[in-house]
Design goal:
The protein has 265 residues and is an all-alpha fold. It has helices at 3-15, 21-32, 37-45, 48-180, 203-220, 232-239, 242-250, 255-263. The chain is rod-shaped.
Length: 265
Amino acid sequence: MSFEQNVTEWYRNYLGRAPDKGGWDNYMGQLQRGRNIYEVAHEIQYSKEGREYAAKQAADAAARTRGAMADVRYHADQQVQRANNQLLALQNKIGGYEDRIRGFQRDIDDYRFRNNELQGQYTNALGQVQDWTNKANEFQKQSADWEDQFNQRTVDWETARDEAQRYRNEAVGRQLQGLRGGATAGGSNNTQGGGGTLASGRTGYRAFDDKAIEIEKNIQAESGALSSKGPVVQRIAARRPAGNQAQRQAQGQGGSGSYYASRFR
């Protein structure tokens, strides 16, 4: 680098300006006379103007630094404020979530309580079902017992009915046989129109035989062994002629007719 370049560079770096003519000629002469370039540079840098320029540069640098720091601080404050705002928003959201969580917890507790109640009711219902099942089984057993008793009573009733029917048939047969033969309870052949037999051909006997046939038809129309109107034998006796009935009563209710009549009273 030449002397001209050195002097120009020193003025720009240390004084912040271009060399004036007086200073340029002075320092160029010294360098040409052999003065050390470092001494010339030191003299320019630490001259009064050089020190003032350096102080001004330092102040400007400090100001720029303070400005930069203030700008950094401002931006930092802005970021902190934004962060605080975001944190506050997050805290509000968290508070809302906490409230919802507490609400869910209350709902869960309520559901658990209701579930326990339902479980208790279900258990009670199961117990009642078991009780009613046991009662139903007991009722079913009693029903089966009553059905067995009913069936047995039915068999007994049918047996009694058959026996009564047999007695009725025997009684009716004997009564009809007695009526057709013209016999009375005492063994007499007397009728309302006089004594004799059906073979004699008398009108009274024939009329009495027609009456017996009518009685037999009425007997066959009966629905049971004993009707609500009284025994069949009593019905037969009631349809016989009055004179013959009186004669039979006078003779002491003898014969087979009194026996069967006593069976159905």
